Each structure stands twice: as C-alpha cells, then as structure tokens.
Amino acid sequence: MKRSSNEEFDPDASELNHKAYKIGCENYDQRLFKKAAKAFAESTEYWPEDYQAWHALGNCFDELNKPARAEPCYRKFLELTVPEKQSNAWYNLGNSLLDQAKFEEAIECYIRVSAQSSIYRSALQNMERAKNGNSNKNS
Q1: pTM of the model
Q2: Is 8 domain-assigned?
Q3: Which of 135, 79, 86 has its CA nearest to residue 107?
Q4: CA–CA gap between residue 37 and residue 31 (Å, rounded)
C-alpha cells in the first residue's frame, strides 16, 4: 500500500483513498463493521487528512464496542475539520469516553455539541449520565 505524505505526494492517493472509503461505506451499510474499519483505516493511510474517513473509522470501532480505539479517531477528525462540522464527533467522542468511564472528559465533549444539532437532546441526557457516573448511554 502506498502512503501519502507531506514530503512526497502520491498522485494516486486521492483515487485510492476514495476507493477504500467507498468500500468502507458499503461494508458499514451491511453492518460488516470489521471489514468497514479495515477499509476506512486503509483510506486514512492513503490520505491521512481525510476527516470523513477518521469519523467513519471511529464509528466502526464504536459499533464493534471498542471505545478506546474509537477515541483517537474522533480526536483526529476534530483536529482536521472545521467547527461547523464537529457536533457529531463531539457527541461520539463523548460516548466513547463515557463507555470508558472517563466521565469528566465525556461531559466536556457533550458541552461542545451545538444546541442546533439534532443530537443535542441526546447529548444533554448522556451528560447527565456522565455526571452521575453512569455509562449506560443513548446511541
């Protein structure tokens, strides 16, 4: 597998990234989360700045009940994208942290979910669970 890097641009990286991402989406839609995760991880190797692939990879790890693996994916997504696109990632990162009993960090994430977001109410409910030290969350 060829990797994209800042030092040396691979002209095929964009096409390879897109192909791997598409395979990941197809597998995710079929609930084949292990296969989807593999494809999304491959996508990030071809194009490490692909914030959508990082978000999708985190979602796969959440579906596989691996919140510790999802956490860095959501953090990478947040690093690479603009604030207007971050509410879902803040919510998902909060859920991953809640699942790891990292309650204070989870609360900080839920606070960052936009009040205009469709998931705002769920974020508030999960924030209350984190405040009470309870990791049973909404998904």
Answers
A1: 0.85
A2: no
A3: 135
A4: 11
Count of domains in the chain? 1
CA distance 79 to 100: 21
- Look at residues 33, 14, 13 and name the one whose alpha carbon lies nearest to residue 24: 33
Residue in the structure block whose two tokens are 């990162």: 93
Using one digit for the tens of pLDDT, what is the confidence trace for 26-66?
A: 999 999 999 999 999 999 999 999 999 999 999 999 999 99
Q: Domain range for residue 71?
A: 13-131
Instruction: Give burial (CB, 10 Å; 0-12/13-18/19+) of 112.
Output: middle
Looking up residue 87, the CATH number of its domain turns out to be 1.25.40.10
Each residue's pLDDT tens digit, 73-107: 999 999 999 988 899 999 999 999 999 999 999 99
> Is residue 54 included in any domain, yes or no?
yes
